[in-house]
Design a protein that fits this description.
The protein has 199 residues and is of the alpha/beta class. It has a single domain, classed as 3-Layer(aba) Sandwich (Rossmann fold), CATH 3.40.50.450. The protein is built from five helices and ten strands, in the order E-H-E-H-E-H-E-E-E-E-E-H-E-H-E. Helix 2 packs across helix 3.
């Protein structure tokens, strides 16, 4: 059976993640994936424009199967990225079609393959995520599996799973497929804050 060509929305802070956004596009190629996202610095969200901004993001993200959030040092300064994630989490109904996006958090390294801005590395080589440095909307959708999976698979314990760039590049097809599966066949296994919007 031919694999579904998945559409990927890349959510990132333009000023510090553009290089890795381009690397990600090169990694994905164009045979199995379509990808899109902002191609320029997002404007400041002014008071009174929130509804228009939200609708614009909604129309773009609704088309995606999976959203990949590039996690960089100043992610918390972004006002757009939490809105993009919020849109991706919603189960939205258009006519008879209902869709929610799978979401992956992808930590991009700093110079020297350094992840210390968001992860501590133990003596044994294990990386420990500093969850409190992530946007609240990501934190709230981690470790939110309703019943622990029998295999105790850490990839399934969170709706939004976080990966380092180096591990993602080795398993990207598998991890994108899994994120999509969480949003479709496994969606009832996670406790999410969402609602159906009929547009």
């Amino acid at each position: 059976m031919e694999k579904t060509k998945k559409t990927i929305y890349i959510s990132y802070k333009y000023s510090e993640s553009l290089k890795f956004r381009n690397k990600l596009i090169d990694l994905l190629g164009n045979r199995e994936y379509r990808y899109y996202g902002e191609k320029f610095e997002s404007p400041v969200i002014l008071k009174g424009t929130e509804e228009t901004v939200y609708k614009t993001l909604h129309d773009k993200i609704y088309q995606a199967h999976v959203v990949i959030v590039l996690i960089s040092p100043n992610l918390l300064q972004s006002t757009w990225i939490p809105l993009e994630i919020d849109n991706a989490l919603k189960e939205i109904k258009k006519g008879k079609a209902t869709r929610r996006c799978g979401i992956i958090g992808l930590v991009i390294p700093q110079k020297g393959n350094d992840y210390s801005f968001i992860m501590n590395k133990t003596r044994s080589g294990q990386y420990i995520l500093k969850k409190d440095l992530l946007p609240k909307i990501i934190q709230e959708n981690m470790n939110n599996e309703i019943l622990p999976n029998p295999q105790k698979d850490p990839d399934l314990s969170s709706y939004i799973s976080i990966y380092r760039w180096d591990e993602f590049t080795l398993r990207h097809e598998e991890l994108i497929d899994l994120a999509y599966e969480k949003a479709t066949t496994l969606r009832k296994n996670y406790k999410l804050q969402n609602k159906i919007e009929i547009l």
